[in-house]
Design a protein that fits this description.
The complex is a heterodimer of chains A (119) and B (280). Chain A is α/β, with parallel strands linked by helices and 119 residues long. Helix content of chain A is 37%, strand content 16%. Chain A is built from five helices and four strands, in the order E-H-E-H-H-E-H-E-H. Chain B is an alpha/beta fold and 280 residues long. In chain B, 39% of the residues lie in helices and 12% in strands. The chains are: A alpha/beta (119), B alpha/beta (280). At the A-B interface, helix 1, strand 2, helix 2, helix 3 and helix 4 of A face helix 1, strand 2 and strand 6 of B. Strand 2 of chain A pairs antiparallel with strand 2 of chain B.
Chain lengths: 119, 280
């Protein structure tokens, strides 16, 4: 029996603005750090896009990815603006501006059997 | 402060073989503290080569290592510097100090210091009308060699000013850190398009266009001042006018006060197109 590979987990802390509810951000990050999962936490996708950070190309081209960030339309065009468009498939964006803390955390860890280590 | 192109040191929190995992509470404090200070953190549970992706700039590998690692190594392929620091004895909320020391010693950029406020173009909606380019006072926009509008100088953008998105007839300009939709990236609904257009139309109705309206108000205020010698009243009038426009369009007053003339706008567009033809 083969199982689907878990997507890479990327969490955006939106560190330089107060637009993502702090309780949602904190809860998602706490859930990620409590589990045995590998993840990439970035301080602020906007700031990275403005700098055209090469890490964005790694995220966009690194296979299936699940991003905790903000509105999918904003995330999509941020990556385009950085010259590293996200692929058409294999990308899940969890909107921490509209989801509740529990919804966002559950969406990020969906399919994780809690000890399913991804590294 | 503007966006520096140099990457800051990236943190790899190594909890794989040869490194004792942190307690979840410590891990949370460590990661959230580093993020708040502007450092990205990749948590690694196994020694996967992909964890330290080459070509992404300097890396600081933090962990509770069983054996003392070298202080510094170099990626053979990219030349990226890799710093190793043992977390033993360092409280998780003070890990930033380890990175600050690396920055100081290695002359690396400190992250943060700039609120990343800049427009992002939704090219699924943009019609390349160039209204944003002509409206923006700060030369944020430019034109590609293919004559396509682009955000050329994001760090020139006036923090918290969404003015260009207000004049975009297609609601194609996003500011992800804006508080309200659809400018923040929320889906665009039919009523949003009508509302955005209405705002622009209202400003146009004030006197031909927003610039003309403001200039006329200014002239009127000056005339009134001369006629009535009532400085206070003129200033009040101007303030009222600016407040109205600011409220309608959510544009900072200092931006409104510096709006260019129609001639300047035309000249700006021409210059941008000429520059794009030169391949800039």
């Amino acid at each position: 029996m083969t199982s689907e590979p878990q997507p890479r987990i990327v969490y955006c802390h939106c560190a330089y603005a107060q637009v993502v509810p702090p309780d949602v951000k904190q809860h998602v990050l706490r859930e990620l750090t409590d589990r045995e999962v590998a993840f990439e936490a970035v301080p602020d996708l906007c700031e990275m896009a403005a700098r055209k950070d090469p890490s964005l190309a790694g995220i966009a081209g690194g296979g299936p990815v699940r991003l905790a960030a903000c509105y999918p339309r904003a995330v999509k065009w941020l990556f385009v603006s950085a010259g590293s468009p996200l692929p058409e498939t294999g990308v899940e964006i969890v909107n921490m501006r509209t989801a509740t803390a529990d919804e966002a955390a559950a969406a990020m860890l969906r399919g994780d059997s809690t000890n399913g280590e991804i590294a | 402060m503007t966006a520096s192109q140099a990457p800051a040191v990236r943190v790899v929190l190594f909890e794989g073989v040869g490194s004792e995992p942190l307690a979840p509470a410590d891990r949370y404090v460590l990661v959230s503290t580093l993020l708040q200070a502007g450092y990205g953190v990749t948590r690694v549970r196994h020694a996967a080569p992909a964890a330290i992706e080459p070509g992404r700039g300097p890396v600081a590998v933090l962990g509770r290592f069983a054996e003392r690692p070298p202080a510094e190594a170099q990626d053979a392929a990219t030349g990226d510097r890799i710093f190793f620091r043992d977390l033993g004895g360092t409280p998780p909320d003070q890990a930033v100090e380890l990175l600050e020391a690396i920055n100081a010693d290695a002359g690396l950029r400190r992250p943060g210091g700039w609120k990343p406020w800049f427009p992002v173009i939704d090219f699924g909606r943009c019609t390349n009308c160039m209204q944003c380019l002509t409206f923006c006072l700060f030369d944020v926009y430019g034109v590609s060699p293919e004559k396509q509008i682009r955000v050329q100088n994001p760090s020139n953008c006036k923090t918290d000013c969404p003015a260009c998105s207000r004049v975009c007839p297609e609601v194609a300009i996003l500011f992800p850190k804006y508080r309200m939709g659809p400018i923040n990236g929320d889906e665009v609904r039919v009523e949003d398009i009508h509302r955005e257009k209405m705002k622009v139309d209202i400003s146009a109705l004030l006197g031909g266009d927003i610039y003309a309206a403001l200039r006329q108000r200014s002239v009127d205020a000056k005339e009134r001042f001369t006629r009535e010698r009532d400085e206070k009243r003129a200033l009040e009038e101007r303030k009222k006018c600016l407040a109205k426009l600011q409220q309608a369009l959510d544009i900072p007053p200092e931006v409104l006060a510096a709006l260019p003339s129609q001639d300047q706008i035309s000249a700006k567009l021409e210059q941008a197109l000429n520059r794009s033809g030169q391949g800039s």
